Amino acid sequence: MIRVALVDDQPLFRGGIAMILESQPDIDVVAQCSSALGLNEMVSRDRPDVILMDVRMPGVDGITATASLVRELGDAAPRVLVLTTFDVDEAAASAIEAGASGFVLKDAQPDFLLASVRAVADGNQVVAASATRQLFERHRARSTSRPGPEYGELTPREREILVCAARGLSNAEIAAAEFLSEATVKTHISRILAKLGLRDRVQLVVYAYEHDLV
């Protein structure tokens, strides 16, 4: 079972999303909150695997809440899937940089929402390739620092795969481009994340753009 918590200040929207999620045999909505106040306590009590978090809320916003979770819980923090109204949203980009595993539009089709929750729970990211470029190229100018010594730990093949992943290519597309199996690509991605100290592929994208590798 995938344990999901909903954090959104709109009761009708939150209730509708809960109904969609609860209709699935492999998803359990364990908590609903109208704000991010007390979020860490809720996580400790209800232990969700995934949090669907509105990025714009009164009081504590989704960015601050996500950053707090990741800072306090590290790799043990639940995955955060940001809910946003716009496909290219500065706040959504900031939430991803703070540690969220992706974002989904509030008007997304139910099947896409369900697939996104399952993907994030499985450790993947949910950021469309087109949005990835637009989101992170906006933030490239904020940092011109060269990669640190951790980048030197990557093999030439791992650097190539890092760039492919940062461009939004799927494992299957990377496998075709690099003449590898998907299983080998998945292994390379895991090693890249470990060597760079990154949590998931979304943080890999951020790393690549901030250090001008793409």
UniProtKB/TrEMBL annotation:
Keywords: DNA-binding, Phosphoprotein, Transcription, Transcription regulation. One of its GO terms (molecular function) is DNA binding. Residues 3-121 form the Response regulatory domain. SMART domains: HTH_LUXR (SM00421), REC (SM00448). InterPro entries: CheY-like_superfamily, NreC/VraR/RcsB-like_REC, Sig_transdc_resp-reg_C-effctor, Sig_transdc_resp-reg_receiver, Tscrpt_reg_LuxR_C, WalR-like. GO terms for biological process: phosphorelay signal transduction system; regulation of DNA-templated transcription. Pfam families: GerE (PF00196), Response_reg (PF00072). The modification 4-aspartylphosphate is found at residue 54. Residues 147-212 form the HTH luxR-type domain. PANTHER family: TRANSCRIPTIONAL REGULATORY PROTEIN NARL-RELATED, TWO-COMPONENT RESPONSE REGULATOR. This is DNA-binding NarL/FixJ family response regulator. It comes from Gordonia humi.
